[in-house]
Specification:
By secondary structure, the chain is mainly β. The protein is built from one helix and twelve strands. The two termini are 31 Å apart.
Length: 276
């Protein structure tokens, strides 16, 4: 498993201090990105479809179909690969650890039926009426899944004496290329799989995976009239309609409930959390 390390030569003062820190090999901050857990998003998906074309008469043709889609709740490849924030008690729940299920308790929906219907009616030799309706489902956007701490974690070392000094490692050494990095300090995962959000974690923003998630779907409909015109021309007038249900929209659940109310008006203020 690859570990990413970085040395950040920044300073709260100016470019000149930054450049001096570079020349002297005395960075103001050093850090390491940890790769303790690999998320490896996994999900089983099953689709079934039946359709029939029915020539009702010389003028009317119907297309009738039904699609069924199954999206099993996603799981990581290994236990610990997902981390979900619980806003009810201000904790992180680690998938597959303790009593936390590997799918984090996200429900699987078995009733994702998507009917399809279409018709073509020959009004006369020059005019045809067409119409159609269908439902289409979409899966959960996996790029916004439960990749919270400790899936995403890092070690950061700052100055100890004052903000203008070099970064200091836990053993007291100054962080330089020559001294190198200490051994990774990996997050400790409790046996029950629940991490209280305290200390530095209070300054973090977390993703909440809705355990009652319902797959979004779009209802599409169209109605068209086609008319043959002189000079080999065709007139096509159509109406197209689309409606999305259960659309996945990212929002800040800690947004203020009262304008100008400050941190006291935040839903998570009871846990001491401010703006994210």
């Amino acid at each position: 498993m690859r570990r990413l390390c970085r040395v950040i030569r920044t300073s709260p003062t100016s470019f000149y201090n930054n450049f001096a820190g570079f020349l002297l090999d005395l960075p103001n901050r050093a850090g390491r990105d940890l790769g303790q857990y690999f998320p490896a998003y996994r999900q089983w998906q099953l689709f079934m479809f039946v359709q029939d074309k029915w020539q009702v008469s010389q003028k009317l043709t119907l297309d009738i179909g039904m699609r069924w889609e199954l999206y099993k709740a996603a799981t990581p490849r290994f236990a610990g690969g997902f981390s979900n924030y619980n806003p009810a008690n201000n904790t992180l729940e680690i998938a597959g650890v303790g009593d936390i299920p590997l799918d984090m308790g996200v429900k699987t929906r078995y009733k994702n039926f998507a009917p399809r219907f279409g018709l073509a009616y020959r009004f006369n030799e020059k005019t045809v009426i067409r119409a159609g309706f269908g439902i289409s489902y979409t899966p959960f956007p996996d790029n916004t899944y439960g990749y919270n701490f400790p899936i995403r974690a890092n070690n950061q070392f700052d100055p100890v004496v004052n903000i203008f000094g070099p970064a200091t490692l836990p053993d007291g050494r100054v962080a330089t290329f020559q001294t190198g990095f200490p051994a990774p300090i990996n997050p400790v995962i409790p046996a029950n799989g629940i991490i209280p959000v305290t200390g530095l974690l209070n300054n973090s923003a977390f993703v909440v995976v809705n355990k009652e998630f319902k797959n979004p779907y779009t209802e599409s409909m169209n109605f068209a009239v086609q008319r043959a015109l002189p000079a080999h021309l065709t007139l096509d007038v159509a109406y197209v309609f689309g409606h999305t249900v259960h659309s996945v929209v990212a929002y800040n659940l800690n947004a203020a409930l009262t304008a100008g109310g400050g941190n006291a008006s935040l839903p998570q203020a009871k846990f001491g959390l401010g703006w994210w």
